[in-house]
């Protein structure tokens, strides 16, 4: 049988250990500060001797650390979202109160130092008058050039975005929506399929110039061109390869009727 004394298991001993924790930490900090260089040297020597082992251990533990971090991050996000949902009104009220308090402090600071701030602004303006004037002119012309070039830039970006969306053939949802839209259009307009077939034939036919056309001459360009309809003033994004032009006799007849009218 072990002879366990009452003093080692008493409550006083446990409390004493708790009281001695801080002095122990202090002694540890003092020791680390006094032997900092020696500890760093031993650490470097150990790393050089066991470099491969340490790297292998780190690589083995990396997936575990990543999964642990993902789980912890997910839990933190869920807790944050839950807390926000439960205390949404309080958070919004606190944000509004902080905004009003900040605005109040800023206005009070400005009122207290209004004259000094005006004097500083005046001195700064006098010292850097030429630089500020040049910067304002540059900003004005830059804004003017941007305002002129912005519609073209937006149009080009829009064209690139449309092309990118059209080239996303791997997107099954886009293909399904497009097929559903085509079915709706065919159901609404029975002549759509016939007109689409005629268009495909005209684009693929190599001898379309050999036919006699009554009112319009079909023209197919090797690449897509941006054209604006003279009747409705609309243009298609991405351009057209296939266009229809009035024949010369029809144009002359229209011109004569217009002049006679």
Alpha carbon gap, first and last residue = 129 Å
Shape: extended
Q: What value does the average pLDDT take?
A: 76
Percent range for helical residues?
over 70%
What portion of residues belong to β-strands? 5-15%
Largest beta sheet: what is the strand line-up?
Answer: 1-2
The number of distinct β-strands equals 2
Report what the structure shows.
It is built from 10 helices and 2 strands; from the N terminus they run H-H-H-H-H-H-H-H-H-E-E-H. With 261 residues, the chain is mostly helical. Among the domains are: 12-80, no CATH class; 175-204, no CATH class; 209-261, no CATH class. A two-stranded antiparallel sheet has the order 1-2. The longest helix is centred in the middle third of the chain and has 38 residues, at 129-166. The radius of gyration is 40 Å and the shape is extended. It starts with 10 loop residues before the first helix and ends with a helix.
């Amino acid at each position: 049988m072990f002879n366990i004394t009452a003093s080692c298991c008493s409550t006083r001993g446990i409390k004493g250990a708790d009281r001695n924790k801080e002095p122990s930490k202090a002694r540890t900090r003092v020791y680390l500060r006094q032997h900092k260089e020696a500890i760093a040297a031993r650490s470097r020597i150990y790393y050089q001797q066991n470099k491969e082992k340490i790297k292998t251990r780190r690589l083995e533990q990396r997936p575990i650390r990543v999964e642990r971090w993902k789980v912890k991050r997910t839990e933190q996000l869920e807790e944050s979202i839950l807390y926000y949902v439960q205390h949404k009104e309080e958070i919004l009220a606190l944000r509004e109160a902080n905004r009003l308090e900040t605005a109040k402090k800023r206005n009070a600071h400005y009122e207290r130092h209004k004259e000094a701030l005006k004097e500083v602004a005046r001195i700064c303006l006098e010292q850097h008058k030429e630089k500020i004037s040049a910067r304002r002119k540059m900003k004005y012309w830059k804004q003017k050039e941007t305002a002129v070039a912005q519609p073209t830039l937006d149009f080009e970006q829009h064209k690139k975005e449309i092309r990118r969306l059209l080239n996303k053939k791997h997107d099954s949802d886009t293909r399904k929506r497009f097929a559903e839209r085509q079915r709706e259009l065919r159901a609404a307009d029975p002549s759509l399929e016939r007109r689409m077939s005629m268009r495909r034939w005209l684009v693929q036919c190599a001898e379309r110039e050999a036919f006699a056309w009554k009112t319009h001459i079909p023209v197919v360009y090797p690449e897509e061109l941006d054209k604006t309809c003279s009747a409705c003033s609309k243009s298609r994004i991405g351009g057209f390869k296939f266009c229809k032009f009035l024949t010369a006799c029809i144009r002359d007849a229209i011109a004569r009727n217009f002049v006679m009218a």
